[in-house]
């Protein structure tokens, strides 16, 4: 399987792009993790991977989206991006996830990539703006991998994304990328309407046939102004999704990403572990893209190094999130997050000004944490990579105790409770504030 994957990388993509990926994302990406670990040992903090939403606008209106896509356009301009990227690179970072809205609606996006040839960019996109010409330019630049979202079969996808023709246009974007031999990815936010169609071996085979090199399964997050909780996966479905990913990694010549588990199958949250944080189109520094609260901004006068190192809000968030669950705090404990944000008087970073109200209305839901049902990696390559570079960096050892975890109760039953879990206890979690330090 590894040989088939290597053969695909060499024959189906541009070798220059593979070399750039290996250097900028492979070597330098791992080096950024080493630097992150050294900082943690010294009691310092700067996340090795940053996700940056460069623009709020989008041409689609997807169900469950949390971004104010219809609000007045706001974007991070070239000067602010230069400053942000240069400061992060000075800390040893080399990889940046680029989100939106729809990132390709940012008129200067390609210029930004061109100005930072020593960094690697993964662009989360619907693919509609990737024409043959844009794909050619991405190939020339060499430091970008498009990650195109497909949210179901044609009918489902178009319903999920708010209008007809969305699916075929995204497929066209993928074809433009693969025809130009880009290292192309496809991502899916797994939910009730696409679970049966896309968590399938035949879908993985189809991606390989199309020349797609990697795929990323997210799990649908119940957030935003229209959270659509009926779309969320059950704990059993999340468990089956994890098993599927682990099996397919050993079988198919395509890389498969999931960002919620370590090498031994223990659940984790990349924001709680400090692996990543997020910058909004307005410059707000948020724990992660769906947690729209902040106390700091990239537009503050302090250098980013100081902001991340000294942010009591982000530190407190990591401790609270890691102390309450190994899964996703906004799914499992919106009440704690709500209390934390209020106590710390965090700014609601949405334009709609409703982030607090949305949290008030969120019910508790199960997330990737399903104790007793861990699925360890079977592929030695993923196992090794995760052991070295994708784990909890000690966050759960320091903060998490199973006895303080609260399973999700539906109709009077704990739907994700491990058989070994003690009877429900009253939570003793204390909500930290800046004043506690
Ligand atoms: S809080 Fe939830 S959505 Fe945010 S990074 Fe953690 S697991 Fe993902």
From TrEMBL:
GO molecular function, one term: metal ion binding
Bias (Polar residues): 427-437
Cofactor(s) for this UniProt protein: [4Fe-4S] cluster
Renumbered residue ranges of the record's region Disordered: 414-437
Boundaries of every Radical SAM core domain copy: 52-185
One of the Pfam families matching this protein, by short name: Radical_SAM
Swiss-Prot/TrEMBL keywords: Iron, Iron-sulfur, Metal-binding, S-adenosyl-L-methionine
Record keyword Iron-sulfur present: yes
Entry protein name: AstB/chuR-related protein
């Amino acid at each position: 399987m590894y040989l088939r994957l290597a053969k695909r990388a060499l024959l189906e993509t541009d070798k220059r792009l593979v070399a750039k990926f290996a250097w900028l994302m492979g070597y330098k990406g791992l080096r950024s993790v080493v630097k992150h670990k050294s900082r943690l040992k010294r009691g310092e903090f700067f996340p090795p991977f940053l996700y940056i939403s460069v623009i709020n606008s989008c041409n689609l209106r997807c169900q469950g989206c949390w971004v104010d896509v219809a609000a007045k356009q706001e974007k991070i301009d070239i000067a602010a991006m230069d400053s942000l990227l240069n400061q992060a690179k000075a800390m040893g970072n080399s990889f940046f996830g680029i989100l939106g809205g729809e990132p390709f609606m940012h008129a200067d996006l390609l210029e930004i990539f061109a100005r930072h040839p020593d960094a690697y960019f993964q662009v989360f996109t619907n693919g509609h703006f990737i024409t043959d010409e844009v794909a050619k330019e991405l190939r020339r630049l060499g430091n970008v991998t498009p990650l195109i979202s497909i949210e179901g079969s044609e009918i489902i996808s178009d319903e999920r994304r708010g209008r007809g023709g969305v699916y075929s246009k995204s497929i066209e974007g993928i074809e433009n990328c693969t025809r130009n031999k880009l290292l192309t990815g496809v991502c899916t936010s797994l939910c009730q309407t696409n679970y049966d169609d896309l968590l399938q071996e035949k879908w993985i085979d189809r991606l390989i046939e199309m020349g797609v090199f990697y795929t990323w399964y997210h799990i649908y997050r119940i957030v935003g102004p229209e959270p659509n909780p009926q779309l969320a996966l059950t704990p059993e479905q999340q468990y089956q999704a994890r098993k599927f990913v682990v099996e397919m990694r050993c079988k198919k010549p395509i890389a498969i990403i999931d960002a919620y588990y370590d090498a031994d199958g223990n659940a984790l949250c990349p924001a709680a572990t400090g692996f990543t944080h997020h910058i909004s189109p307005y410059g707000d520094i948020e724990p992660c893209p769906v947690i729209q609260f902040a106390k700091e901004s990239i537009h503050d006068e302090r250098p980013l190094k100081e902001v991340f190192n000294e942010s009591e809000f982000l530190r407190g968030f990591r401790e609270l999130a890691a102390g309450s669950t190994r899964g996703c705090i906004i799914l499992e404990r919106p009440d704690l997050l709500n209390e934390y944000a209020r106590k710390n008087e965090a700014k609601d970073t949405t334009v709609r000004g409703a982030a607090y109200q949305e949290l008030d209305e969120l019910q508790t839901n199960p997330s990737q944490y399903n104790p007793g049902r861990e699925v360890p990696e079977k592929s030695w390559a993923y196992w090794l990579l995760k052991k070295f570079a994708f784990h909890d960096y000690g966050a759960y050892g320091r903060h998490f105790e199973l006895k303080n975890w609260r399973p999700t109760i539906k109709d009077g039953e704990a739907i994700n409770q491990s058989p070994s879990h003690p009877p429900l206890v009253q939570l003793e979690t204390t909500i930290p504030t800046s004043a506690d330090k």
